[in-house]
Amino acid sequence: MTAPKVDLNTINSPADIRRMSIDELNVLAAEMRSALMHKLSAHGGHVGPNLGMIEATIALHYVFNTPVDKIVFDVSHQTYPHKMLTGRMQAFTDPAHYNDVTGFTNPEESPDYDLFSLGHTSTSLALASGLAKARDLVGGKENVVAVIGDASLGGGEAFEGLDYGATLGTNFIVVVNDNDMSIAENHGGIYADLRLLRNTNGTAEPNLFRAFGYGYRYVHYGNSIRHLIKAFQAVKDIHHPVVVHINTMKGLGLPVAEANKEKFHYTAPFDLKTGSSLRQSPAGKEEQDYTDIFANHILDRMKDNPAITVLTAGTPGAVGFPPSRRREAGARFIDVGIAEQMAVGMTSGLAKGGIRPVFAVVSTFLQRAYDQLSQDVAINGQPAVFEVFHTGVFGMNDETHLGFFDIAMISNIPGINFLAPTCRQEFLAMTDWAVRQTAQPVVVRVPGGPVVNNPACRLLADYSEPEYEVVEQGSKVALIGAGNFFYRMKEAAAILKEKGYTPTLINPRCLSALDTRTLDTLRDYDIVITAEDGIVDGGFGQKVAAYLGEAPAKVLTLGLPKKFMNRFRASDVIHQSGLEPQQIADAAEAAMAI
Amino acid sequence: MTAPKVDLNTINSPADIRRMSIDELNVLAAEMRSALMHKLSAHGGHVGPNLGMIEATIALHYVFNTPVDKIVFDVSHQTYPHKMLTGRMQAFTDPAHYNDVTGFTNPEESPDYDLFSLGHTSTSLALASGLAKARDLVGGKENVVAVIGDASLGGGEAFEGLDYGATLGTNFIVVVNDNDMSIAENHGGIYADLRLLRNTNGTAEPNLFRAFGYGYRYVHYGNSIRHLIKAFQAVKDIHHPVVVHINTMKGLGLPVAEANKEKFHYTAPFDLKTGSSLRQSPAGKEEQDYTDIFANHILDRMKDNPAITVLTAGTPGAVGFPPSRRREAGARFIDVGIAEQMAVGMTSGLAKGGIRPVFAVVSTFLQRAYDQLSQDVAINGQPAVFEVFHTGVFGMNDETHLGFFDIAMISNIPGINFLAPTCRQEFLAMTDWAVRQTAQPVVVRVPGGPVVNNPACRLLADYSEPEYEVVEQGSKVALIGAGNFFYRMKEAAAILKEKGYTPTLINPRCLSALDTRTLDTLRDYDIVITAEDGIVDGGFGQKVAAYLGEAPAKVLTLGLPKKFMNRFRASDVIHQSGLEPQQIADAAEAAMAI
Fold it and tell me: B288-334, pLDDT tens digit by residue?
């Protein structure tokens, strides 16, 4: 008997795999794994989550009648196998088409099989609860399946969804993909219970899922198509909420990824054999970006100040804290798991207890803790410090991970001092002050884009009150550039100076309050232009425009559009937004000519 | 033997009760209950939560060495007994001092005993985790206690806190005050488990708290000081996280409150014997406010459109859905419990499944679902409908419950159409359109203040694009009043007309996008004034000011200050913000004179 063969390029939809034998499905899995490894090593992407979910994805589409039956994948960074089986195989087998798909489910790619565009964790249970309730209200019969990883389960919306979903009383199937890992290690009491369940073949009490009110099935061989099919068939068309807890291996099939799960959660292109990155580090540069600069600096400060404690919420590597630095910080490094609400609330308690908490967080994920910033921290005036990374147009460029909404979100919460450093020197000075002072909550917006060294930047010993840096004093035209966009303004000023103008160039330093003394000096200018690396709406420039609303000076507010953009090039957005230095200079000149 | 006597006015601090016998403590509880009932019936407030927690509060302060030991009360609307025992007794025994205290813990009232100002649910575990971790880092020995109700436990931040807190590995005591009620009934799978635990004297499995990793004690007689003291003494100075699950009776001692827990969760002054409200309803007025108007109208629409489904998140009564209306809506009314993230995520799933979801929510609580509005709903363009109640300066006036941040929060999220009706007629027209259309998410900002009937309001059949209503066409001065503040502008216009001016009066209808066609007609005006019932920062007026920033017209943006205010009078804030019609007219006149 010869082994069955499967040609990936003949798989156009799940119907094509429902005709296969288990042996063929196993070959399919092997072929998919091989294709995925080649694409991932050449192209980068989410390695571990996808290699671990190949078998489960095959089994789901084999058992459930998709797209009539509905599957919502939490965070959806594990949906490369799903995309391969639902009409997008070429994007994984043909290098010329690698960029045809995004890294997340996307209804524009597949209206039938991708139900939602999503990329933040912990949303699947709420979304699927809505689908299930809608089905019940309209009299449908389809299965509704939510697939959620063990790490995503620790987010507040997931718990709320787990809690509410249990009450649906009808078909609601939750597949818990348990690979015993978050991006880094998991943190939370539930993980001891998941481990207990894994170690007892799902038989132990307490059982978290039963405590929430679910029926429960455990699949120890979560990378065995045969076992998975059996389990999914057993719950298909079930009339009550049930959890299928599957034990999978993150990175399965790629030894370097199995051995180093954190590094291979998401990675740039790498050598398939050695696992080493194919991207060269700049020679002699130990500190490549602001995450390294931050981490090294704060670790240094922690040596002198035993009160400083760093927190992260599930993304330590993305903010400069890989395992080595976490070990260095010891007990004064806290990762709470994917639980930003908890992290922000905890900073308030830590500060109240005499600790100087520094929560390092990715801009888009801080969105999950808006109310905690307001209620837990700001109302209480607790001097917690927040370092917001991956901000602006140079941050991530998936529509679900945009880093340019934080100015509008944070700068309008009372009582928070929101600082926008322009360069490395100012970033460190503001961070040092924020940690030193104990009067107010401070958010430091880590600059986007490449690191800028600017020894000429005038630093302050105290950033508690807004005080703009007038870098160049001129007349008639003022250019106010916040954060990393300051340097666009500086370049625009140079262009204008060549033309004989004498622009005033300002670094505002602060996004949450106005330096009205300095702004008053601009009242009779011809034109004041602001630029910020965030959406214009609700941002810094609009505050300036309103303040100068009754003054003779014209005001032009530049920034990014209020829009969800996907897979854009930063340079395109900057051009379309009139943010190139030449465009800014032209706008200034045009305004003065009127 | 005579019964012991306790004079409440001799209780100045917890030390005073630690000398008492159990019999004396029981008398103390009775005296406190009597005083509370008198104050609550005369003054209004949170009735049920406080009457149920008298004994537990006494036992906590008796056993734990407060203020060295630290207690964080979740949501803190159950802390009247705590205030009585911590130096604020007179505010509960002397009617002349009833207003000396707020309804929530407040460090300004008691820096030692009130650790945080808080009023949103589900925050205590995160805050207390921070206190406990800080204690461990600085080498302290005190107990850290979080007191949280069964309803608050269902919020995302509470679950995250429960999850993380379990990993602390040191003293962390969670008292779960289980009265089997939210404001209304509880919703969620965990409540079946809590019931099971109550019915088995805490012995059953599955046990939610053990599943999260906690030690566990159950106190069946949660209103027995003797039983409570025994339980708290058993966990005092414990070296690991533990839950003490106490079974209490909401509203204990007041028969009308015991019998009608939802109505007596929070109430205006009432007759102690009958429970009937002491506030008169206006004669012949069935619909007293916008919550009634909304509920009656949407119930009517639901008769014709079987897809309409109303959601609430734990506060059905506050948005017009007391039990009678919930029964009327049947399966098409969904309360998810105190879980706004879940509710917002679910609306997206419901809309995707063909339902027309309408989430009715209190402004301040929608803050907990900022990221879900952005990610689950707006990115996906799902046509969910949100009705935001208790907005603006006329909404609630506790610093933790302010309703004037929602414009800055919502209007800067891409893809959401945020409408601000000015009157009853427009409110209903916008709601009808929002439910009818299926192209986009729509938020309707329910007007604050008394209901305004304005049959002259020009309604639209389609609100998808911003289109301002030019109510009066004039020249030189334009008054743009959003939502309920439109009428301030109308009054200001009348004053200006008496003085011979001809103001243009505009209702902008939409807060999230500009009607640039109409705004362009104002470019050469002398002055354009905007007014909105929300903070100026990040709001509507600043968008107008920025848009007209290069136009000759001066722009003045009026609105509320970016500030947490506590127990303010709306009229004071309006005056201080220059929002009285006469002030607005004066400002317009002054601007034109320059």
Answer: 799 999 999 999 999 999 999 999 999 999 999 999 999 999 999 99
| A515 touches B at CB < 8 Å | no
Q: How far is A553 from chain B (nearest CA, A)?
A: 8
Residue B118 pLDDT: 97
Distance CA B191, CA A211 (A): 9
- Domain extent at residue B189: 8-267
Element (H, E) at A368: none
Structure tokens at A389: 């990374």
- Residue A278 lies inside a defined structural domain of this protein: no
Assigned domain for A454 exists? no
- Out of B355, B367, B414, closest to residue A134 by CB: B355
- Cα-based distances in Å from A184 to A152, A270, A368, A501, B162: 12, 19, 19, 53, 20
* Dist. CA A216–CA B279, nearest whole Å: 52
Answer whether B188 touches A (CB < 8 Å).
yes
Confidence at residue B184, expressed as pLDDT on a 0 to 100 scale:
84
Q: Which helix (H) or strand (E) holds B442?
A: strand B442-445
Instruction: State the complex-level ipTM.
Output: 0.97
B202 touches chain A (CB under 8 A): no
Examine the pLDDT at B417 and tell me if it is beyond 60.
yes
CA distance B77 to B120: 9
Q: Mind telling me how many Å the CA of A293 is from chain B's nearest CA?
A: 25
The whole-angstrom distance between B369's CA and the closest CA on chain A is 8
Give per-residue pLDDT as tens, B31-50: 999 999 999 999 999 999 99
Residue B166: its H or E element: none
- Asked whether residue A16 is domain-assigned, the answer is yes
* Residues B195 and B180: beta-carbon distance below 8 Å: yes
Q: Could you tell me if B263 and B296 lie in one domain?
A: no
Task: Specify the range with the lowest mean pLDDT, choosing from B4-8, B160-164, B467-471, B557-561.
Answer: B4-8
User: Is A376 in Cβ contact with B116 (below 8 Å)?
Assistant: yes
pLDDT tens per residue across span A298-345? 999 999 999 999 999 999 999 999 999 999 999 999 999 999 999 999
DSSP per-residue string spanning B271-324: -TTT--BSSPPPTT-S--SHHHHHHHHHHHHHHH-TTEEEEESS-GGGGT--HH
Q: What would the 3-class secondary structure string for B190-218 be?
A: HHHHHHHHHHCCCCCCCCHHHHHCCEEEE
Enter the pTM of the model. 0.97
Q: Do A87 and A154 have their domain in common?
A: yes
Mean pLDDT of A290-296: 97
